[in-house]
């Protein structure tokens, strides 16, 4: 065999095992064999360049602190860096083939919507979410999603980086918790002042009017005073309802479920909708913070269901299991589009209260078919159990 052909065979064997440093010399003949050698040398340079780029990418891929996932356009994980497998407690290589949605669960409504938004905007999409470890531990993350393509011949992929923002969310939750507690303290003070002063004064005036009616001889004057007395009774009732809304004494005395039942009776809501309130298990003793937050969320849900959703049926269920409390709120109203921006602060305020207890809010709604809100709050290592 020609020595040059043997050299070609040897260098191709080296290329096969990833050694691309050596080149073959071109003879003075400049014949067809030399043309082949020149082509092989060029191929070696290209392979070496690709390998260096790949190794450089892989080094960066595994050295960053953030979790990084390469997913296809269906949201299936093609590759994941070492921090992703380490932080999520998976074996190396075991994340490949999993759906990213399975890791995010309900914290992102549907990752397909994120991919659709990415195709429309053609820029980086940033969202907050929750990613779950193999043990079910929740990690708050900042997600950055963008298109990724290594070469023209490869299919379009998506790169998703997930930064652990646990410390940031902890600080935010402490601030939110302090604000909520301050608001509730002010509501409690205002309710007490209204009850102890204005309501008592109105009750005193009502007593005097009632006494005067009994002494009046003129029927016309009696009628006028009776009308004033009726209006005063309505004002006292409204004032008591306002005090109950600001700070329901039933909540402090008898707990969450009875307070919710009383709320549904107090404000004439039974005339607008039929309520079904269920308690599937005995609730543990809850801290005042959890009780008042769940109560406010239920207030907000009922108000929205009646005012905006025009619901005629509202179901509220309470369930406790495995150191969790779950409240499910359902109506048969108009519903809304989950991914459509909404005016107002209602749902955002609900989410803030839930986040302050490291809980989750799952929303399901469809136009014409009503809404379902599911609130889950852990009762350990939290503000939960008093």
From TrEMBL:
GO terms for molecular function: 4 iron, 4 sulfur cluster binding; metal ion binding; phosphorelay sensor kinase activity; protein dimerization activity. Residues 294-381 form the Histidine kinase domain. It is found in: Cell membrane; Cytoplasm. It comes from the Bacteria. Its EC number is 2.7.13.3. InterPro entries: HATPase_C_sf, HATPase_dom, His_kinase_dom, PAS, PAS-like_dom_sf, Sensor_HK_TwoCompSys, Sig_transdc_His_kin-like_C, Sig_transdc_His_kin_sub3_dim/P. Residues 53-104 form the PAS domain. Keywords: 4Fe-4S, Cell membrane, Cytoplasm, Iron, Iron-sulfur, Kinase, Membrane, Metal-binding, Transferase, Transmembrane, Transmembrane helix, Two-component regulatory system. It is an enzyme of class 2 (transferase). It is a multi-pass membrane protein. Pfam families: HATPase_c, HisKA_3, PAS_9. It catalyses: ATP + protein L-histidine = ADP + protein N-phospho-L-histidine. GO terms for cellular component: cytoplasm; plasma membrane. Its cofactor is [4Fe-4S] cluster. Member of the two-component regulatory system NreB/NreC involved in the control of dissimilatory nitrate/nitrite reduction in response to oxygen. NreB functions as a direct oxygen sensor histidine kinase which is autophosphorylated, in the absence of oxygen, probably at the conserved histidine residue, and transfers its phosphate group probably to a conserved aspartate residue of NreC. NreB/NreC activates the expression of the nitrate (narGHJI) and nitrite (nir) reductase operons, as well as the putative nitrate transporter gene narT. This is Oxygen sensor histidine kinase NreB. It comes from Ginsengibacter hankyongi.
């Amino acid at each position: 065999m020609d020595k040059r052909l043997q050299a070609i065979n040897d260098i191709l064997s080296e290329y096969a095992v990833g050694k691309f440093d050596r080149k073959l010399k071109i003879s003075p003949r400049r014949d067809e064999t030399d043309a082949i050698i020149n082509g092989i040398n060029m191929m070696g340079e290209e392979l070496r360049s690709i390998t260096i780029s790949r190794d450089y990418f892989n080094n960066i891929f595994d050295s960053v602190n953030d979790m990084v996932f390469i997913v296809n356009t269906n949201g299936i994980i093609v590759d994941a860096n070492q921090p992703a497998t380490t932080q999520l407690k998976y074996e190396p290589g075991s994340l490949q083939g999993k759906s990213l949605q399975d890791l995010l669960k309900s914290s992102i409504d549907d990752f397909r919507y994120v991919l659709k938004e990415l195709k429309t905007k053609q820029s980086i999409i940033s969202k907050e979410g929750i990613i779950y470890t193999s043990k079910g531990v929740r990690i708050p993350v900042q997600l950055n999603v963008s298109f990724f393509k290594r070469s023209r011949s490869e299919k379009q992929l998506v790169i998703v980086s997930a930064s652990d923002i646990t410390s940031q969310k902890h600080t935010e939750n402490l601030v939110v918790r302090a604000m909520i507690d301050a608001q509730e303290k002010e509501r409690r003070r205002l309710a007490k002042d209204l009850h102890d002063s204005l309501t008592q004064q109105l009750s005193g005036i009502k007593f005097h009017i009632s006494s005067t009616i009994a002494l009046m001889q003129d029927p016309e004057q009696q009628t006028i005073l009776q009308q004033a007395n009726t209006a005063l009774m309505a004002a006292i009732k409204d004032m008591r309802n306002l005090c109950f809304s600001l700070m329901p004494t039933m909540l402090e005395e008898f707990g969450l479920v009875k307070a919710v039942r009383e709320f549904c009776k107090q404000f004439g809501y039974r005339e607008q909708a039929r309520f079904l309130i269920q308690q599937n298990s005995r609730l543990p003793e809850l801290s005042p913070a959890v009780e008042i937050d769940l109560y406010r969320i239920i207030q907000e849900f009922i108000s929205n269901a009646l005012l905006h959703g025009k619901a005629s049926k509202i179901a509220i269920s309470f369930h406790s299991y495995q150191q969790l409390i779950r409240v499910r709120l359902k109506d048969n109203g108009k519903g809304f589009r989950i991914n459509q921006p909404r005016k107002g602060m209602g749902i955002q305020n609900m989410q803030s209260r839930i986040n302050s207890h490291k809980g989750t809010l799952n929303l399901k709604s469809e136009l014409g078919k009503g809404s379902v809100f599911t609130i889950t709050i852990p009762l350990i290592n939290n503000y939960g159990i008093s």
